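#structure-requests
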Amino acid sequence: MALFLALDQSTSATKALLFDLEGRALDREAREHRQHYPQPGWVEHDAEEIWQNSLAVLADLVGRHLARREEIVSLSLTNQRETIVVFDRATGCPLYPALVWQDRRGDALCAEHVAAGRGPLVHRKTGLKIDGYFSASKLQWLVRQRPDLQAKLADGSALIGTIDTYLVYRLTGGSVFATDATNASRTLLYNITDLAWDEELCALWEVPRCALAEVRDCSAHFGETALGGALSRPIALCGVMGDSQASLFVQRCFAPGATKVTFGTGSSLLMTIGSQPRLSDSGVLTALAWVHGGVPTYAFEGIIISSASTLTWLRDQIGLAPDVPAIERLAIAAGDNGGVYLVPAFTGLGLPHWNSTARAAIVGLSSHSDRRHLARAAFESIAFQLRDALDALRVEARVQHAVLRADGGPTASEFLMQLCADIAGVELSVPDLADCSPYGAVLAGQLGQRRYRSLEEIAALGRSETVYRPVMSAEHVTALRTGWNRSVHQISG
């Protein structure tokens, strides 16, 4: 029986998974990597550490299934989006720390471009807004700060890649320098209508076009790999997608209006809109959902910058509790938020505010407040931001959702999912499949390998899920959201 490997490279960890043909995850292995914060607003990863972790989790996973390793036919890849790596063409080794999607060092450059009136041009070509969240301003900052790297990029001895590009390059021993359309579209350098790197955008952000990877379909073949020697023979590397798009794919949101949210460090809402891009003036982004057979599918997207990271901040920085489950127990014990609201603008706010200068605040503290209320406020902040982003998508698409599909690690919390269903006012459908993004990449790869012949065939696959229905009264939701909106206004001005 055929087996399929997936590599899931996220903001906090790298995970390898082994799937069978029915989509069951037979085994998984994960390793966390360190987060580096050299200055306020800067976030870096060691790309070499990520590469070594990738090799390690793949080798460990394969090593536990030596009797079946000849059945492994392919590796698929999904990854954190927007994070960017500059690496050496000859060795594949990184030449600078990976600049993470949360990193805000490009904000001043973004402000210059906005002041110069370039926002409409960038929006028209990319579907995105000028914001330090995306890759281009980080790259412009880097080439200005490091003329030596700028020279290497210009002469071709250094290359630029999102995390998928970097890992594909290293997995194939430097023989394939390619990315997929979903990752390319997160850089502010890619024209989502022409499906090509845009010379005008590259010039605007001072990024040499020659240093950018070939862009392939999500379901395409990306070369072959022996996983650094973990396998005795090379296997196909096929199916590459950004993590949020991969989960949209596996949730089978193929029809226009179908919507899902992926909860993680931050969160992403994606609503499929069809084969033609539609642009929004309200802060809703237009994204490439996937490209197969040269045909694009587009989506509206709402970005939430801080979700699960709010809970890990309480654990790691504040020391509120030893782990996230303990924080959840505190939140449940509180019963209500006691008038306390936590606005997690640690690196700004996403949709609908798009305020990169806003900073986090805890509002409404009193002598009655204790750590239970702070824990409750943290969980509620995830639900409030979901409602804000979902409302923006609803207005833009003129769609009222009966069901919102959800995935990501935080969906394991029944308390959080019920809270989100209540405050968002929508049924929340959580698949029993725990690893949506990596299996989405696997499905894309299987589509490219012709194991499935069409999206319709994938859509017909069985589904097992848990549904959370709103039970909180509309009056209580309104009261809570009034307090939330007041708190957001306090930090936004």
